[in-house]
């Protein structure tokens, strides 16, 4: 295969046309004399088409002929990491480190793999090495953020989260269209308590790559968290005010007004923040996609709307009629609590 054909395939891969690139490279795959570059581009196209196992086999075939190739070791580490084969990814990442200890790319890839392997100290060491070598490369900042706040860890030190957010913002400064950085920034913002800000960031990542399952899963988790917070505040307010505001066997009118104001204020705040943070063109798909994938959580959110409606109606009606309306709102809150637990266990089973 000629160098021009390989260059053409590389150009097609860069344009996001992996099927065309693979068609150009078909002779290389059937030839025993395929060059390293041809096999790398073929594996790249196969990976983009979701043919991960074929991509690994192509890279292993190339590595058999070029065992000292750093590019092949790094490519195998990244591909196996993507497939969640952490043992294989770590093996090839360590091999790449032994071949090219002065390469910032190798240190960045090794940091990402080691982070997911639970090797936090080693991951941070290699990430800082990559960052020192290449401070203007987004991959270095990605590696540093991943080392500081790996997705597999539930509890984080807040200082590490702040530093991780800084590095993800740096990655976006270098490449504003980096949807992976936007997704990871949303994850870190959510961990720091900025759920609505995270929703805005994540909506932009999803707009750039709407079919990415990881982005969809993070979106679902984020909207579920916002629903949970709204439910918790409203449920606690209802229980507290119900116990302190009884007058002649029913809730007093001032307490009904307070409940209605809390309900409306809560939803207005979340709504305004979502409208402010999520691009208008993405808001409806953002919510509709959540409702389609998470039917239980969507029903849970719907019950919160029902409870709010009946709290407001009770405040408007007052008197004896408000008792029945408050009872319906309470049942909606209780049913929402049950649905929240069912939704939690269903999602945990899927994970």
Automatic annotation (TrEMBL):
InterPro entries the record matches: CellSynth/LPSAsmb/PSIAsmb (IPR051012), TPR-like_helical_dom_sf (IPR011990)
Transmembrane segments: 221-241, 253-275, 296-315, 321-346
Record has Membrane as a keyword: yes
Keyword presence, Membrane: yes
Keywords associated with the record: Membrane, Repeat, TPR repeat, Transmembrane, Transmembrane helix
SUPFAM superfamilies in the record: TPR-like
Protein name, entry field: Uncharacterized protein
Native species: Luteipulveratus halotolerans
